[in-house]
């Protein structure tokens, strides 16, 4: 494998389109699940969600990273300041901030979504994406990076792993700081 990972900027947008396919990855989500409130998301069509992510690729802080194997797009990770994924911060979510943490703090980041090309799942790409996401967050001023992965999925190749697996984050040095729902820990890695 000849893996390279880049921030999703406008020049890489066609590659993300290719990776996600016409359906937009997870059932047309286009990584809007944590970026929008449910009513907002439900009111938008697939093309609207796609446009929101495309617009974010032109922001000063890219919405995530895209992985290539020999020039072919094979994986994606959404990694942003917590403020960019407001649904991650609501009081009723398992990913909500710890007491005393301010989700608008630019030093508090979240790895909220992972997507790996179906035929490439189970080959360790998630590990590489998480490591690159941590480095990207650090390079952009993060002091802490959090994730809220799942302990067990029905299958190792399940699309339900869009939040990542606990074992991948534990392997990258993340520690559990809260578990508000069994099997869905809030995990954190300090970068400073």
Notable characteristics:
globular, 5 helices, Aminopeptidase, alpha+beta, single chain, acyltransferase, 192 residues, 7-stranded mixed β-sheet, GNAT_dom, GNAT family N-acetyltransferase
Describe this structure in words.
With 192 residues, the chain is α+β, with helices and mostly antiparallel strands. It has one domain: Gcn5-related N-acetyltransferase (GNAT) (Aminopeptidase, 3-Layer(aba) Sandwich), CATH 3.40.630. The protein is built from 5 helices and 7 strands, in the order βαααβββαβαββ. The protein has helices at 13-20, 38-43, 46-56, 125-139, 166-171; strands at residues 3-7, 64-69, 72-81, 108-116, 144-147, 175-178, 186-190. A 7-stranded mixed beta sheet has the order 1-2-3-4-5-7-6, sandwiched between helices. β4, α4 (125-139) and β5 (144-147) form a beta-alpha-beta unit. The longest helix is centred in the last third of the chain and has 15 residues, at 125-139. The chain is globular and about 40 Å long. This is GNAT family N-acetyltransferase. GO terms for molecular function: acyltransferase activity.
Strand arrangement within the widest β-sheet reads 1-2-3-4-5-7-6
Order of SSEs:
EHHHEEEHEHEE
The CATH architecture assignment turns out to be 3-Layer(aba) Sandwich
Radius of gyration: 15 Å
Strand fraction equals: 15-25%
Share of helical residues: 10-25%
InterPro entries: Acyl_CoA_acyltransferase, GNAT_dom
EC number: 2.3.1.-
Enzyme class: transferase
Keywords: Acyltransferase, Transferase
């Amino acid at each position: 494998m000849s893996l390279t990972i880049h921030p999703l900027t406008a020049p890489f947008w066609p590659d993300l389109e290719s990776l996600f396919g016409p359906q937009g990855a997870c059932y047309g989500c286009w990584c809007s699940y944590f970026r929008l409130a449910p009513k907002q998301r439900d009111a938008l069509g697939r093309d609207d969600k796609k446009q929101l992510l495309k617009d974010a690729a032109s922001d000063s802080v890219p919405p995530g990273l895209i992985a290539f194997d020999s020039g072919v797009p094979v994986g994606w990770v959404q990694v942003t300041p917590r403020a960019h994924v407001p649904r991650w911060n609501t009081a009723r979510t398992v990913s909500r901030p710890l007491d005393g943490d301010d989700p608008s703090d630019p030093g508090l980041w979240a790895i909220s979504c992972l997507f790996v090309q179906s035929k490439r799942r189970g080959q360790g790409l998630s590990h590489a994406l998480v490591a690159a996401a941590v480095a990207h967050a650090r390079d952009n001023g993060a002091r802490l990076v959090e994730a809220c992965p799942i302990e067990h999925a029905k299958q190792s190749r399940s699309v339900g792993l869009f939040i990542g697996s606990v074992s991948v984050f534990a392997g990258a040095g993340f520690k559990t700081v809260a578990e508000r729902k069994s099997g869905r820990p809030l995990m954190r890695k300090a970068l400073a």
